[in-house]
Amino acid sequence: MPYEVHPTPAKGKDGRNIVYAIPASGLKMTIDQIDEYCSKYSTLTSGELKFVMGEFLRIASEKLAEGIRIETPIGSFAPRLKLAREITCAEDVRNSDLILDGIDFNPGKIWTEAIKKKMYKGFRKVERMDTATLLSNQEQLEKALRQAIKDYGGYTTVNGFAYHTGLTYYSARKQLNAWTEGDNPKLLKTRRGHDNIYTEI
Question: Are 142 and 97 found together in one domain?
């Protein structure tokens, strides 16, 4: 699992900023990409996973709206409620005082253990250069673009380009979009499901 290390505002015993680790930014898959992956490497045909996810969303949201906790192999989902105003007496709470504050997800042990089994290679630290430095080297960016397009089989996504360049998701998207503009654009942007793909012109 590639990860990054960033400083926090808090100081440690040595007077320097305490750091924290997060998974490397810019790595993301959409449901369309997961569906495509499953159709290539499992017995599912294209569209089946998306159909099942759509049905799960329809039924689970209906049951969550009835206050039912949904237990699944990957964890449980439950509605989270909140009072719209400060109330100190339980008897004063009325239906109109409640709002839905989101959905709580508890991954549970099964999900955690499933991920651990796949992480036999452990962790890999990603050293990211300053964004301005990365963006200033157009030759290197274009080389990374060609590699990303080759790896994806004729196109790239923001995530794929971010992975090959070390840019954040937002900087990678900004650069790709810049290449689609002007009198002589390098790339063509096409909507595909919930994501955009970029192909060379």
Answer: no
* Boundary-marking domain end, from 95, 118, 141: 118
Residue 45: burial class (beta carbons within 10 Å; 0-12, 13-18, 19+): exposed
**161 lies in some domain:** yes
Cβ count near 61 (within 10 Å): 13
For the chain, the domain total comes to: 2
Q: Which range marks the domain in which residue 162 is found? A: 129-200
User: What's the average model confidence in pLDDT over 13-25?
Assistant: 86
Q: Is residue 99 part of a domain?
A: yes
* Chain segment 50-81, per-residue pLDDT in tens: 999 999 999 999 999 999 999 998 889 999 99
CA distance readout (Å), 111 to 38, 75, 100, 131 = 19, 7, 26, 34
Nearest to 5 by CA among 116, 115, 124: 124
pTM of this prediction? 0.53
CA 135-24-75 angle, to 5 degrees, is: 145
Residue 15 lies inside a defined structural domain of this protein: no
